[in-house]
Design goal:
Radius of gyration: 16 Å
Order of helices and strands: HEHEHHEHEHE
CATH superfamily: Glycosidases
CATH class: Alpha Beta
CATH architecture: Alpha-Beta Barrel
Largest sheet: 5 strands, parallel
CATH topology: TIM Barrel
Structural class: alpha/beta
Number of domains: 1
Number of helices: 6
Strand content: 15-25%
Oligomer: single chain
Distance between the termini: 31 Å
Strand order of the largest sheet: 1-2-3-4-5
Helix content: 25-40%
């Protein structure tokens, strides 16, 4: 059905990084569909209310497990980190925690020859928050940095 709709990429927000995903990933690959995948999952992610304690060794091992589980598939397009951590004016100080995972993920991708896979750090924020996230720039360049400006309105 995805092929009939002309879809060539799907975004996956969470996976069980301990499960085998061969059937799904191979079916998507056979259909010419790429996967953009978040490295966070329901058990381990950056807590926007208190990010420092949530960025720890257990979290990072879970991130690496997701990368290791999916980087070998030819249709893994990229990994997202830091999805929607900064999403309001009162949590723009969390912006460094959107970029910090990349400082550990990029060496992991390079060390394991996962050169096809890319990393995108993401902030879900409006235009007024974008200027504040620019202050979180680090010495480690990110291959992609994306600001998602969403505005949901009912009429």
């Amino acid at each position: 059905m995805f092929q009939q709709l002309g879809i060539n990429t799907v975004r996956v927000y969470t996976v069980d990084n301990t499960a085998n995903h061969d059937t799904c990933m191979n079916a998507l690959s056979a259909a010419g569909i790429y996967v953009a995948l978040d490295v966070n999952n329901g058990l381990y992610s950056i807590n926007r209310a208190d990010p420092q304690p949530s960025y720890n060794a257990v979290y990072l091992q879970s991130v690496f497990a997701t990368i290791d589980a999916f980087a070998g598939y030819e249709n893994t397009l990229l990994f997202f980190s830091g999805n929607e951590v900064v999403n309001a004016p009162d949590n723009t100080n969390d912006a460094p925690y959107v970029r910090i995972p990349g400082q550990n993920i990029i060496p992991r991708l390079r060390a394991n020859w996962y050169i096809r896979s890319r990393l995108s750090t993401e902030t879900c924020a409006g235009t007024s928050l974008h200027a504040n996230t620019e202050a979180s720039q680090s010495d480690t360049p990110q291959p992609m940095y994306r600001v998602t400006a969403t505005n949901w309105r009912s009429t």
